[in-house]
TrEMBL record:
<dbReference type="InterPro" id="IPR011994">
    <property type="entry name" value="Cytidylate_kinase_dom"/>
</dbReference>
<dbReference type="GO" id="GO:0015949">
    <property type="term" value="P:nucleobase-containing small molecule interconversion"/>
</dbReference>
<dbReference type="GO" id="GO:0005829">
    <property type="term" value="C:cytosol"/>
</dbReference>
<keyword id="KW-0547">Nucleotide-binding</keyword>
<keyword id="KW-0067">ATP-binding</keyword>
<feature type="binding site">
    <location>
        <begin position="10"/>
        <end position="18"/>
    </location>
    <ligand>
        <name>ATP</name>
    </ligand>
</feature>
<comment type="similarity">
    <text>Belongs to the cytidylate kinase family. Type 1 subfamily.</text>
</comment>
<keyword id="KW-0808">Transferase</keyword>
<dbReference type="GO" id="GO:0005524">
    <property type="term" value="F:ATP binding"/>
</dbReference>
<dbReference type="Pfam" id="PF02224">
    <property type="entry name" value="Cytidylate_kin"/>
</dbReference>
<dbReference type="GO" id="GO:0036431">
    <property type="term" value="F:dCMP kinase activity"/>
</dbReference>
<keyword id="KW-0418">Kinase</keyword>
<dbReference type="GO" id="GO:0006220">
    <property type="term" value="P:pyrimidine nucleotide metabolic process"/>
</dbReference>
<dbReference type="InterPro" id="IPR003136">
    <property type="entry name" value="Cytidylate_kin"/>
</dbReference>
<keyword id="KW-0963">Cytoplasm</keyword>
<dbReference type="InterPro" id="IPR027417">
    <property type="entry name" value="P-loop_NTPase"/>
</dbReference>
<protein>
    <recommendedName>
        <fullName>Cytidylate kinase</fullName>
        <ecNumber>2.7.4.25</ecNumber>
    </recommendedName>
</protein>
Amino acid sequence: PASIVITIDGPTASGKGTVAHRVAKHLGFQYLDSGALYRLTALMAIRTGVSLQDEAGIAALARTLPCQFQHGHVLLGGQDVTDAVRAEQIGVSASQIAVLPQVRQALVELQVSFRDGVGLVADGRDMGTVIFPDARLKVFLTASAEARASRRYKQLIEKGIAANMEDLVKDLTERDARDSSRATAPLKPAPDAIILDTSEMNAEQAVQQVLEWYAEAQ
Ligand code: C5P
């Protein structure tokens, strides 16, 4: 039988990555950061000079993305791009190519291939709606734009990257609008998803809530 999947979807900087990663660790499951695949594709396009509007060209890159995930490090063509791929500008570029249906289609197989072994926790925008519709538990993680911008701000400052709250709120709002309004696989909760608003919650409280729901779904 196909292994168990927990999907955690939600808007930019809602804390999905942290929560999904910790839940996977608790359960001994694999973890898929699907946003990283869109980010890697965008980075690859920028580095090889393929225009972000060239749908077929970018889909071709996505189909044969030379990426590896090793102990929290991300490699592209054998090169460590862990920090480069997290850059705010790459997130924006990722959301631009994520509207292209051929690019989304090209990444389906790679995403599904993470489902091996005991179980998988997958985070993204369309994990519960498109990629793993048969997931055991679907969570839609949200938080107010202000809470998300201030979390992103702290993350960037901790990493020694300059950041500005006003720009971050603007970025997040634009990215939310683009992710929610696109025709293919827009950001929206699956009909059977449970909504978790983490505006007033820390990461560990969110992790415990997801684990509780997972235990109840058995
Ligand atoms: O989650 P993260 O911010 O890393 O994702 C970067 C961008 O990739 C998102 O803004 C979104 O446009 C796109 N994405 C997507 N579908 C996913 C994951 C990410 O469209 N499953």
